[in-house]
Amino acid sequence: MPGGRTARYDGWVADPAHVPSVSFWFDPICPWAYQTSLWIREVRRLAGVDVTWRFFSLEEINRPEGKRHPWERPWAWGFSLLRVAALLRRRDPELTDRWYRETGRALHEQGRAVFLREEAEALADEIGIGASVVEEAVADPTTTDEVRADHDEAVSAYGAFGVPTLVLGGRALFGPTVVPAPAGEDALRLWRVVTEMAAIDGLYEIQRPKTSGDLAAIEERFAPYLNARRWPTITNPTP
Fold this sequence. Notes:
Layout: E1 8-9, E2 12-13, E3 21-26, H1 31-47, E4 50-55, H2 58-61, H3 77-91, H4 93-108, H5 117-126, H6 132-139, H7 141-158, E5 165-168, E6 171-174, H8 184-198, H9 212-221, H10 223-228
Parallel strand pairs: 3-4
Antiparallel strand pairs: 1-2, 3-5, 5-6
Helix pairs in contact: 1-4, 1-8, 3-4, 3-6, 3-7, 5-6
């Protein structure tokens, strides 16, 4: 911190060395959350911050009136990938970490349609988790319960409306949404910005307008995802 200044609230200090953990709500089909996950992994590597992966369903939060809930369908794109993550979390949180990393890389960097069941099974086999984990997850109704519990907590306790949603020191932030994910000192600089923002009462939003050049760069970065997806973009007003 400049001049050794620190910001304190809820019993912790807003400094990378003193913020031991962050809860990160994600949906694997979100390209913004994936970029932010790359950044928080870099923060974890450099600053030792502990990351807990939590589940959020964009299919549910953006569900049009009259459409079935994702848990009412035999297979739902992001929701079913989260059910696999929930099963893996019971066995070892590191497996959830790996599953999110690899599904994200496959969809958002390689343009693979891992939101389809057969592609999810193929990926699970490739990364050494085993294709059968997908069948186990969707055959076990309690995986739905776990995903819904995480999602409902984010919405009811923190007012979450999308991903990435981060909770640190008891406070929630939507974002940061950053493309591309910063690395090295830039990653730590952004972490300091995030922890400082979380420490300020009454600060709800800072947004930088996107120029046409910004939008073109984002579209280029998201091209694998945009080419692979099978759904339209849904943008709801921010609460």
